[in-house]
Design a protein that fits this description.
The complex is a heterodimer of chains A (about 120) and B (about 425). In chain A, a hairpin with a 2-residue loop joins strand 3 and strand 4. Chain A is built from two helices and six strands. In chain A, the strands form two sheets. In chain A, strands 2-5-1-6 form a four-stranded antiparallel β-sheet. A two-stranded antiparallel ribbon of chain A has the order 3-4. The longest helix of chain A has 17 residues. Chain B is built from 20 helices and no strands. The longest helix of chain B is centred in the first third of the chain and has 31 residues. The N and C termini of chain B lie far apart (about 55 Å). Classes of the chains: A alpha+beta (about 120), B mainly alpha (about 425). Chains A and B meet through helix 2 of A and loops of B.
């Protein structure tokens, strides 16, 4: 019996370590992501994956007493910020971790791997 | 014997059975049910049922087979009772069919899935302390209360931790399997480190807490199980050898007041020679496989100590050489410190002192670093600096036994006008 679980890989990094567009490191950085994406597609595990705009563009929302309140920027102050994500379809956590390790930013920042809830329908 | 005494005697028998066969039975149940928590709960149900049934109608012909059958049926009951059983009707059907088939094969020996269980409990995605608790509970068959007492936490907190861990194993998709070649080394290391962590806790706690459960014995039991289940793995043999060789000295490590006795001052005549023999033989077997690793090398160092007739006659140069090899496979400042200690007996304390600055930064908060420095300083006759170094070591002591020992050493320094403290 093959069980498959969807995993979300949340990519965190210190924005100052991400190469800027046009810098010498930018090309190799993008090429590494390109190679990782191709591998994910080839192995049939890629469900989705996107990079996010800088966290300074974020708006944090909460609804209290029925009233929406918004805040500029991310809620928690921390050096590492959410910069992108992937969703993988894998047979086990070990597989998901193996793919997460191929995400280039894992070498400088960190990747949080979490199973997506499987709600019976 | 009155009824109460008979029930207590039966409870003891069941406890022994769990200690002996519980891990194997649970490992098979998890494989059948594919649900760690359900397997654990159903197994507990079966044990409770055993207490009532066996006190009424006596022990069954094969208690393990009886427990397996009952646990399977308790699992069927639990799935039926569960709110979402409709979504599990397929599993239920399969389980009922399996239960009927299993009955026909009851005379056959029960399988053993403990290797899968061990790799699951010690998965690197679990917190180390969680793995320790899971291993002691699920593989060794210790009670939650016993583990909680050994680690000085409340039974509730430990039970919570175990439930969370089983939940993570299920939800995060930690596979119930023996890992393949690509992940073997990493996963094996995780297993070995959990076992060694249990051993070290037992070793450190032996002077402080008097426990019915001896964590060193449990770790050795796990080590033995591992070498049975994977007979070709030299590092598993190396770890077992290391634990046996250390444990062989346990009786000599503490004096009658519970104070630590150093290797130098230990009475070697009370070392357990049969454990040393077993550990050394196992180590030779492991090294012959030609794949040395950190546990085999640490065991080799312990073997040189164990076989030395006295502290003075120890082959310190050999020990320093093994530390060189160990540092090359697993760089670690603590190993560097131990190598320096070995060299202090081969080349003298002055040469050793000159080597200390290389590890000083990495070990500045590590008690033994300051204790070693104090000892070396006193051996070259610098009593004042030695005293300061002992003070730094005492500040960093984790246990009373360590503190008492270091204070004793400090106060024994020559030229001490007035013992401090």
């Amino acid at each position: 019996m093959e069980i498959s679980v969807k995993y979300m890989a949340l990519i965190y990094s210190d924005p100052s370590t991400v190469p800027a567009y046009g810098s010498a490191a930018f090309g190799p950085f993008m090429a590494a992501y390109q190679a990782a994406n191709e591998r994910f597609i080839k192995d049939g595990v890629l469900v989705a994956g996107e990079a996010l705009e800088n966290s300074s563009t974020a708006t944090t929302l909460k609804v209290r007493n029925g009233k929406p309140e918004t805040l500029d920027g991310p809620f928690a102050e921390s050096k590492e910020q959410l910069g992108g994500f992937y969703i993988f379809d894998c047979a086990s956590l070990d597989d998901a971790l193996r793919y997460a390790a191929m995400i280039p930013t894992a070498a400088t920042g960190s990747v949080e791997v979490r199973p997506i809830q499987n709600v019976p329908r | 014997m009155n009824d109460e005494a008979a029930t207590l005697a039966l409870a003891d028998r069941i406890e022994d059975l769990v200690r002996k066969d519980g891990g194997r039975l649970l490992s098979v149940l998890i494989a059948i049910l594919r649900d760690f928590q359900l397997a654990e709960d159903s197994f507990q149900d079966a044990l409770e049922s055993a207490l009532t049934n066996w006190s009424r109608s006596g022990m069954p012909a094969s208690p393990p087979a009886w427990l397996m059958r009952t646990a399977r049926r308790k699992a069927i009951d639990r799935i039926r009772r569960a709110a979402n059983f409709r979504s599990k009707s397929k599993e239920l059907e399969a389980l009922i069919k399996l239960d009927a088939e299993a009955e026909a094969h009851e005379a056959e020996p029960i399988a053993d899935e403990r290797l899968k269980l061990i790799f699951t409990c010690c998965h690197p995605a679990l917190d180390r302390m969680t793995s320790v608790a899971l291993a002691l509970r699920s593989i060794c068959g210790l009670k939650t209360e016993e583990i909680a007492r050994a680690y000085v936490v409340t039974p509730d907190a430990l039970a919570q931790r175990l439930v969370r861990a089983r939940h993570k194993i299920a939800k995060a998709g930690i596979a119930y399997e023996v890992p393949g070649a690509d992940a073997w080394n990493e996963r094996l290391n995780a297993v070995l480190s959990v076992i060694y962590l249990i051993f070290n806790e037992g070793y450190a706690a032996s002077s402080e807490r008097h426990l019915r459960v001896d964590l060193c014995d449990e770790a050795i039991r796990l080590g033995r199980l591992l070498t049975e289940l994977m007979p070709q793995e030299p590092e598993a043999e190396g770890l077992l050898a290391l634990m046996l060789l250390h444990h062989a000295r346990s009786r000599a490590r503490l004096d009658t007041n519970g104070n630590l006795v150093t290797l130098e001052e230990q009475d070697r005549s009370i070392w357990n020679r049969s454990a040393i023999g077993e550990g050394s033989a196992l180590l030779v077997k492991a090294l012959r496989r030609g794949r040395p690793g950190a546990y085999q090398l640490q065991a080799a160092i312990a073997a040189v100590h164990a076989e030395a007739p006295s502290f003075a006659e120890t082959d310190w140069r050999e020990i320093a050489l093994i530390y060189d090899a160990l540092i090359s496979v697993q760089p670690n400042p603590v190993f560097e410190l131990n190598r320096i200690v070995a060299l202090s007996y081969a080349d003298g304390p002055a040469a050793a002192l000159a080597r200390l600055p290389a590890v000083a930064e990495a070990l500045k908060d590590y008690q033994p670093f300051h204790a070693v420095r104090a000892d070396l300083l006193s051996r070259i006759g610098d009593e004042a600096s030695a005293r300061e170094a002992y003070d730094l070591a005492i500040e960093r002591s984790g246990t009373d036994a360590e503190r008492n020992y270091l204070e004793h050493r400090r106060d024994r320094l020559a030229g001490n006008v007035e013992p401090a403290g």
